[in-house]
Amino acid sequence: DAKTTQPPSMDCAEGRAANLPCNHSTISGNEYVYWYRQIHSQGPQYIIHGLKNNETNEMASLIITEDRKSSTLILPHATLRDTAVYYCIVSLKAAGNKLTFGGGTRVLVKP
Amino acid sequence: ETGVTQTPRHLVMGMTNKKSLKCEQHLGHNAMYWYKQSAKKPLELMFVYSLEERVENNSVPSRFSPECPNSSHLFLHLHTLQPEDSALYLCASSQSALAGGDNEQFFGPGTRLTVL
Q1: Model pLDDT, residue A64
Q2: Which partner for B17 in B13, B21, B53, B70 could form a disulfide, CB atoms 3.0-4.6 Å apart?
Q3: Which residue numbers of A have CB closer than 8 Å to B's CBs?
């Protein structure tokens, strides 16, 4: 699986958009970009995933660059409950495939 | 019950004890996973079961023994653990792409294990 690079931490203001970057320059053509988050002492929570096109759901938007070497997770209106560690993972969409978690980005939403 | 449940939520055991962690998924998924999360370390994949067969064993010591009796249940049997095995143990499940899923994994709340 391709490796990802994320900033270790970032702060954002409550009510503002939070833009979380991720670099995955060695991603292969059939690998997807997945985003998860882990709120303190809880299990990770799936947020969104994509291959080439931008994706949006009720939680977030995922913007993938045309060369697929980087992506940005956008939380449109951050709330205090969005404080968590956010993980960007690239992985095949195969049966039983593993997710390799890195250190993620520790996001602190401030009032 | 919905989602992925794990029991017990907290467990304290001595190094000579034998205990088991239980995971149950109510999502109709066909793959299940055990992860370990030690303090200040990334999540580490331990085992993967797909269609009740173990497809991944990530160099886990034999004192950890997984069991997947059916697609809804996953156990982790523990014996003669060491204090450094103290961690949060997380179970997850997913539906494979072949079965119409996107392989996003749904995690349980975890079992906080302390080995004395």
Answers
A1: 97
A2: B13
A3: 34, 36, 41-46, 49, 91, 93-104
Average pLDDT, chain A: 92
Instruction: Report the residue of B6, B34, B41, B43 to disrupt the A interface, i.e. the one with the largest count of A CBs within 10 Å.
Output: B43
How far separated are the first and last CA of chain A, in Å rounded? 37
DSSP, residue by residue, chain B: --SEEEE-SEEEE-TT-EEEEEEEE-S--SEEEEEEE-TTS--EEEEEEETTEEEEE-S--TTEEEEEEETTEEEEEEES--GGG-EEEEEEEE--GGGT-----EE---EEEEE-
Interface test with A, best of B27, B105, B113 (most A CBs within 10 A): B105
Residues B11, B21 contacting (CB under 8 angstroms): yes
| Residue that has been written with the tokens 């291959």 in this structure | A51
Reported as a single tens digit per residue, the pLDDT across A9-30 is 999 999 999 999 999 999 988 8
Question: What residue of A is the nearest CA neighbor of B50?
Answer: A96
Closest partner CB to A96 (pick from B4, B50, B104): B50
Q: Give me the amino acid identity at A89.
A: I
**Cα A104-B48-B86 angle, rounded to 5 deg:** 60
